[in-house]
Amino acid sequence: MLSSKRAQASEHVPTQSPVAPGPRHPAGSRADAASGLRKDRGADPAQHSSDEVTVVDPAMVKRAVSAAALGNAMEWFDFGVYSYIAVTLGHVFFPSGNPTAQLLSTFGAFAAAFLVRPIGGMVFGPLGDRIGRQKILAITMIMMAAGTFAIGLIPSYASIGVGAPILLLVARLVQGFSTGGEYGGASTFIAEYAPDKKRGFLGSWLEFGTLAGYVGGAGLVTLMTALLSTEDLHSWGWRIPFLIAGPMGIIGLYLRMRLEETPAFAQLEKEARTKEKARREVEKRIGIREMIFGQWRSLLLCVGLVLVFNVTDYMLLSYMPSYLTSELKYDETHGLLVVLAVMVLMMAAQPFAGRLTDRFGRRPVIAAGCLGFLVLSVPALLLIRQGSLAAIAVGMGALGLLLVTFTASMPSTLPALFPTKVRYGSLSIGFNVSVSLFGGTTPLVVTALIGATGDKMMPAYYMMAAAVIGGIAVLLMSESARKPLPGSPPAVETEAEAEEIRRAAKADATV
Known about the structure:
Shape: globular
Order of helices and strands: HHEHHHHHHHHHHHHHHHHHHHHHHEH
Number of strands: 2
Distance between the termini: 38 Å
Structural class: mainly alpha
């Protein structure tokens, strides 16, 4: 287990700063990391000494990554199922006789989940900073699985009338509320477990789970649509993907309950019980005010980074199938299959891009993605508008690979914006506000812009605008690759690495 391995390392290993992030630690050599320790001590007497290094347990890290990624996979499994089976759900829950009204009602229930995501972030985020990441991630897993499973049990409109769409809306609100605490907690969990030099690679598996969940959900619905008759799909077949969430939730909960608390939070909690108890009580009373106003600069950077990440994400994975069908009159089935193929391509590239962020830094990788969307969005969309399968595949594939620069880097970049004491809460608030305002509204806004202007190149212009905002955020953020998280000591994989840092710190202290 993690705690026992740290105990074996040294009687001094590990301890951790209670709260203060201090200056950013320089990247690069172990001596640089040690120098960062010395600088922190000068800035705050409560900061850690040169002895303090966290030696992580590789087996526990793997379990942490798996459990966090599975939760994200569950969230996007539901997203894929709901998006691809929306027409069927319209017939089951909103039988108005008007197909357009049915679809709008179905997506209205879908969009309702986005409205409560920031509320979920404001509730679960502070709780995650107060009682622990592991406990809250277990709760969000239960709620997500229960909400999705419940949809599969709801009687149809033909059986109970207006109660059916009301129950669907309630289930969606439960899902959205729980999702508000999922991404911020999952990315925080992985970031606080990972050794500094592999945080990008390990964090990239979180979005691998996202893509796997979406592909699994969408692929299952596509398979069922091909195998079942319309009558069977409307009567009972649509329930199957939602009911699968039950066993998936039990597996995910089991994995998350087996985890220990992250090293960063565990040490914070330990110090709260001793000499820092009074200080921590003050911090608890600060709550939301500290998470927002005390971290306003980091929060704005988070919103900007999440904006470019989610606008491009929802544009490619959610809006493009509709764009191909409604605006370009492309065959619906082929359009969905192209998007699924792009996601499989992204999954293959995800871990490699994560390693690039560890080697070259988060900023260069994110900046490359912003520049790519700024320069290539118009050519890629022109290719897509050519209409041939090859042209669509190349254009969508190019956008998908550019998106990987964000999906691979954000899970390690965003947690590093905030100190341990408010990391879960501030990240959850910033992430979900940005997703709700900009990411989830992307299909609606772009559709409205095309309708108002008649310009079918509007998706490209919208992505370019998002890339500019993301580029500004990259210019203003600090590099976090291969550095300790703010408020945490260096995290390494072996005692030899820890000893190397201690020796470098002692040598640096004598200079």
